[in-house]
Design a protein that fits this description.
Distance between the termini of chain B: 73 Å
Structural class of chain A: alpha/beta
Strand order of the largest sheet of chain A: 7-6-8-9
Number of helices of chain A: 20
CATH superfamily of the largest domain in chain A: Cytochrome Bc1 Complex, Chain C
Mean pLDDT of chain A: 93
Number of domains of chain B: 2
Order of helices and strands of chain B: HEEEHEEEEEHEEE
Number of strands of chain A: 9
Radius of gyration of chain B: 31 Å
Helix content of chain B: 10-25%
Helix content of chain A: 40-55%
Distance between the termini of chain A: 53 Å
Shape of chain B: elongated
CATH class of the largest domain in chain A: Mainly Alpha
Strand order of the largest sheet of chain B: 7-2-10-11
Radius of gyration of chain A: 28 Å
Order of helices and strands of chain A: HHHHHHHHEHHEHEEHEHHEHEHEHEHHH
Largest interface: A-B, 47 and 41 residues
Shape of chain A: elongated
Largest sheet of chain B: 4 strands, mixed
Oligomer: heterodimer
Structural class of chain B: alpha+beta
Low-confidence stretches of chain A: none
């Protein structure tokens, strides 16, 4: 399955670029598929509340036909309900695809992946029961297929399919149970959603308000312009030649109908097992770039910043086992995803995944970018780029004359790196991160801006001219935006005086906490 | 961002949104074939209690006395539930044949029949038989009043009669040993004709026929 990650990543990049070129990275809905799915759940709850009030168990088809015939309220609310359910399915599927392609489906994210699979299945089941409620030809088709599938399981003594045989009216109990399940499943989704985000610190559940309203508005326009189809009322004595089929929420139906029930169950079970095994088969050894963060207790001052910044609640402060009065940070490897955000949050550079702590970043900088910077006659602007950035964008910056220094994520960029660059003569440093809602470290761009411009620990020191530092967003599909941001910064920097290059800048020593007696000895 | 660029982006966003909405609306109501063939359908659907085939014997007064009081049943039966052969012929040609048993591991639950046969539209002779496979007759004689009406006294008074009545009631509730349906029907395209068991008339009954 891991061999699928690379093509999936390429496909995702192409999709992202397409959506960004159309909407811009700030409005790109593909960056917010998870939150869009939650927003659609809320839209479903709101519209479903109205529908359940006017729905009649005793005459399901007639009541839905009456709702659909009401042009002022019922028709568009019902259509909005349906389109929201379809968008939920699309958003949830894209969300899973994104996390798979970005290798974010294993390790501490396993619980989120598995609960996400459960939420997706519940969503499909909810759509199934919703269509059956309408009791048109499509609803009957779904009900009959469901009955056929369940009849091969040793659950019901009387075949469910007999409900629709026609020798008696479809019992009201059937519609009652269907409605009950349709209402209970969203409650189960609430629990599943809680599980889904339970390992996240500060989970973002909804897209920005303007995006929510834009999506709901677009769906409402769709609901008015293209009212959801409603087939003829179900009739046990008529064989419909064709029915309208929702290939989004009931994509499985044409497949299932062509298979014997046992084979259909086996295929579904195999697909479910494959989905649940994704965290297992895509996991990496927890070493190298996948190693969890570690804390150097000699450097930890107990400032409590890394637990606040960790997007995964993987760090806690515990009593020290030496004589120092402060607490010391402790990383839980089972919760750490190796995002490295903590490395950027630690002023004394004492925490982070192996090779990514602030000290490691300075070492890497000295061995590469600083050498190039020192060798240049006319010091270029340094572009610190996220490793996830599109290759074409990085190449374009190089072509503009920028000295590119890549880091795994701008969220774990220690402010000392930027300080060192400026003090070593870089006329300006532009940090190009991913769109905030597409950061693999979840909160990288947010903490970066806070540290650089709002004095969040470990802040960029006041001695660094803020005019020489800028943060930009580098999103696939928006090369023009990236270059515009760079060009604007270059013009701004050109107007500043020439920077002075300081000699012997030793930031590690400056950042180190005062040594204790036992350390000194 | 220049105003021209902003305008182009708004236009591209609008176009992509409209395309996405239209694709969504189309994909949510795609007319897909369900019953593409114009064939009609004969549906057999009913449920009933299978007959209990028993060998019964009347216990003597001595045997009864040896039993605990709450287990003193005058007639004791041992047996199984019947199975049935269902056969459908259309225009003299067999359309289907199967064995029907009661539900449950011991086949002691009601039996359920749901069979569907596609039949070309038009007039067709339909012959359905549903008959018990087991040839053994039940041991009804055991419930004959071999014991004098006054033989059981006290709290057991009328026991043999009550048992016989209960046995008769259960036999009455079971589906008959043989059901037959023989007629000529006109089948309309894509219409379902339903043949079911009418428990009151104790016969097969037709719904939806032209």
């Amino acid at each position: 399955m891991r061999i699928l990650e690379r093509p999936a990543r390429r496909a995702l990049a192409a999709l992202d670029a397409l959506a960004t070129s159309a909407y811009g990275w700030a409005w790109n809905p593909l960056h917010q598929t998870g939150t869009v799915a939650v927003a659609m759940l809320l839209a479903l709850l709101a519209t479903g509340l109205y529908l359940v009030l006017v729905y009649r168990l005793g005459a399901p088809a007639a009541s839905v036909a009456r709702i659909a015939a009401d042009p002022w309220l019922g028709a568009w609310i019902r259509s909005l309900h349906r389109y929201a359910s379809d968008l939920f399915v699309v958003a949830a599927a894209l969300h899973a695809f994104r996390l798979f392609a970005q290798r974010r489906s294993w390790g501490p994210r396993t619980l989120a992946w598995i609960s996400g699979c459960g939420l997706f299945l519940i969503g499909l089941a909810c759509a199934w029961t919703g269509y059956v409620m309408a009791w048109d030809t499509f609803g009957e088709r779904l009900a009959r297929e469901g009955a056929r599938l369940f009849d091969v399981l040793p659950i019901f003594s009387e075949p469910l399919s007999r409900i629709f045989a026609g020798d008696r009216p479809v019992p009201g109990a059937f519609f009652f149970v269907n409605l009950f399940v349709h209402i209970v499943l969203p409650l189960a989704m609430g629990i599943g959603l809680w599980l889904h985000v339970s390992r996240l610190a500060r989970p973002t559940l909804l897209p920005p308000k303007r995006l929510i309203w834009a999506i709901v508005g677009a769906l409402t326009v769709a609901a008015i312009a293209f009212p959801a189809a409603l087939g003829p009322a179900a009739d046990s004595f008529t064989l419909a030649e064709r029915t309208p089929v929702d290939l989004v929420a009931a994509w499985w139906l044409p497949l299932s109908e062509r298979l014997p029930a046992g084979v259909a169950w086996s295929a579904a079970l195999a697909a479910l097992i494959a989905a649940l095994l994704v965290p297992r088969v895509t996991r990496r050894p927890r070493e190298g770039s996948w190693a969890p963060s570690h804390v150097d207790p000699r450097l930890c001052t107990g400032c409590n910043q890394c637990p606040q910044d960790c997007p995964w609640d993987a760090i806690t402060m515990v009593p020290r086992d030496d004589d120092r009065p402060s607490l010391v940070a402790l990383v839980d490897p089972a919760r750490c995803v190796s995002c490295g955000i903590c490395a950027g949050s630690c002023a004394p550079m004492g925490v982070g995944p192996a090779g990514l702590t602030g000290r490691d970043q300075l070492t890497a900088l000295r061995s590469c970018a600083l050498t190039a910077l020192g060798a240049a006659v006319d010091s270029p602007i340094v572009a610190v780029c996220c490793a996830q950035a599109p290759v074409t964008h990085v190449a374009a910056l190089r072509a503009r004359g920028a000295l590119v220094h890549q880091v795994p994520c701008v969220g774990n960029l220690h402010s000392s790196v930027v300080e060192l660059l400026v003090r070593q003569g870089a006329p300006g440093v532009i940090v190009c991160g991913c769109p905030p809602r597409d950061c693999v470290g979840r909160e990288g761009p947010k903490w970066l801006a806070e540290r650089f411009f709002n004095e969040r620990e470990a802040e960029l020191q006041p001695r660094v001219e803020r005019d020489r530092v800028r943060i930009a967003t580098m999103a696939g599909g928006d090369l023009r935006g990236t270059l515009a941001a760079y060009d604007d910064f270059a013009r701004h920097v050109a107007a500043l005086r020439r920077p002075e290059r300081e000699a012997n800048v030793e930031l590690q020593a400056e950042c180190a906490p005062p040594a204790l007696a036992e350390d000194a000895s | 961002m220049s105003s021209a660029h902003r305008l182009a982006r708004v236009a591209s966003a609008a176009v992509m949104t409209i395309v996405a909405i239209m694709a969504l609306a189309r994909a949510t109501a795609l007319p897909l074939a369900y019953h593409p063939s114009p064939a009609a359908r004969l549906r057999l659907s009913f449920s009933a209690r299978p007959e209990r085939i028993e060998v019964c014997r009347t216990l003597s007064a001595e045997e009864l006395a040896q039993r605990p009081e709450h287990m003193r049943q005058r007639v004791e039966c041992d047996g199984k539930f019947a199975s049935y052969r269902l056969r459908i012929d259309v225009d003299g040609r067999p359309a289907g044949e199967s064995v029907v048993r009661g539900a449950g591991l011991r086949h002691d639950r009601p039996l359920y029949v749901l069979r569907e046969y596609d039949i070309p539209p038009g007039r067709h002779a339909v012959h359905v038989t549903f008959e018990r496979r087991e040839q053994t007759d039940d041991d009804a004689e055991a419930f004959a009043p071999a014991v004098a009406v006054g033989a059981d006294t006290g709290i057991f008074a009328g026991r043999a009669q009550r048992e016989a009545a209960e046995h008769a009631r259960r036999a009455e509730a079971a589906i008959p040993k043989r059901l037959q349906f023989d007629t000529t029907l006109v089948f309309a395209p894509r219409r379902v004709t339903l043949l079911t068991f009418d428990a009151e008339r104790r016969a097969l009954r037709l719904f939806g026929a032209l």
